[in-house]
Design brief:
The protein is α+β, with helices and mostly antiparallel strands. It has helices spanning 12-21, 34-39, 76-81, 83-88, 90-98, 102-107, 110-115, 166-172, 190-193, 274-278, 287-297, 309-327, and strands spanning 5-7, 25-28, 47-50, 60-62, 68-71, 176-181, 184-189, 212-218, 227-232, 243-252, 255-264. Strand 6 (176-181) and strand 7 (184-189) form a beta hairpin. The N and C termini lie far apart (45 Å). Bound molecules: iron/sulfur cluster.
């Protein structure tokens, strides 16, 4: 690990000042991703700005307008088990519990989860070239071992996937990220928070270098029982998704009034195509339509030598997730067998 200096700001304004005035600074809270990256020499911050004790960012706050604001420093465990989240937005609770291990969820924060970096093997190996780690050096994953890589939205510069489970649920729920920078606060819709790799794979998000995450806001629509977070992985625990699906529906008198679907493990950001959701709104749940939704969501999917299997896996996962959501039988994150 490289030497670094350490700052512990006592206010959001002070934290923003720290990152704005020092381009080599990194923000740390739970440290469950950043410390690994520092040990592997992937990240070499000259200064760590420890925001873990900032006041006002550890609350889950239900608002009179039906929305809820989850502070950036709320741990994954506290968010998943908070009664407001569990009862009101069970899709988010389920996705949080599908991720990592209990120990990691106890330390990891909501803000850090939003900003965690890809698990591409080459990205973590500082001896290898990698456009995300060192722009312009190449992408060995394209012709190398690419079993866990993207099938949608990839570029000739990078085929990495976004690793978070939580973010897939936040994308489906149309959450909004609140951030603060030198110019004040702003809101970034989840659809615009993460980026596709394009020509700048080194940029995972649209958060500016001098901004910090304050909170995530969940909209008032909750989807009740008709949701599921279905995660398919190589083993049932402590593994990143090969493919995951967050699905939610509002069903009235047997008809789907509103639908939301987002995919994880398939692209550089949670994958959502709103037109696919419209295909099942206003109709009764219909397995043939679920297949059509899957085809639409996966339009243009292209696999590589080791991950082409993900296309069919995703097709089946989308169908299964929509069936689970329609039936009101969400995937259990304790008994992980898929019904
Ligand atoms: Fe690096 Fe992206 Fe290629 Fe992985 S897929 S080696 S992160 S450029």
């Amino acid at each position: 690990m490289n030497p670094f200096s350490y700052a512990r700001p006592s206010s959001v304004a002070e934290a923003v000042r720290e990152v704005a005035t020092n381009p080599a600074a990194k923000v740390i809270a739970g440290g469950t991703n950043l410390v690994d990256l520092m040990k592997y020499h992937v990240e070499r911050p000259a200064r760590l700005v420890d925001v873990s004790r900032l006041p006002g960012l550890k609350q889950v706050e239900a608002r009179p307008d039906g929305t809820v604001r989850i502070g950036a420093l709320v741990t994954n465990t506290d968010a998943a088990y908070h009664p407001t989240v569990r009862e009101g937005w069970p899709l988010l609770s389920s996705a949080l519990l599908a991720g990592a291990t209990a120990q990691l969820r106890n330390a990891a924060t909501i803000g850090g989860n939003l900003l965690q970096r890809t698990r591409c093997y080459y990205f973590y190996d500082a001896q290898m070239p990698c456009n995300k780690r060192e722009p312009g050096t190449g992408c060995p994953a394209i012709s190398g071992v690419n079993r866990v890589h993207a099938i949608l939205g990839h570029s000739e510069r990078c085929i990495a996937t976004h690793p978070s489970d939580m973010c897939v649920a936040l994308a489906a729920l149309e959450a909004v990220v609140h951030v603060a920078g030198p110019g004040g606060e702003r809101r970034i819709p989840m659809a615009e928070f993460h980026r596709l790799p394009g020509h700048e794979p080194e940029r995972d998000t649209n958060l500016a270098r001098d901004e910090i995450v304050l909170a995530v806001e969940l909209p008032a629509h909750r989807f009740g029982l008709h949701h599921t977070y279905l995660k398919l992985r190589d083993r049932l625990s402590y593994a990143f998704a090969l493919v995951s699906v967050a699905a939610a529906m509002e069903i009235e008198d047997g008809t789907i009034r509103r639908a939301r679907i987002a995919l994880g493990g398939v692209a550089h950001k949670p994958w959502r195509v709103e037109a696919a959701e419209r295909m099942i709104e206003g109709i009764r749940p219909d397995p043939r339509r679920f297949d059509e939704v899957a085809e639409y969501l996966l339009e243009g999917a292209r696999g590589f030598q080791h991950n082409a299997f993900k296309i069919d896996l995703a097709r089946r996962a989308i169908h299964r997730a929509l069936a689970q959501a329609a039936a009101g039988t969400p995937q259990s994150q304790t008994d992980k067998r898929i019904a």
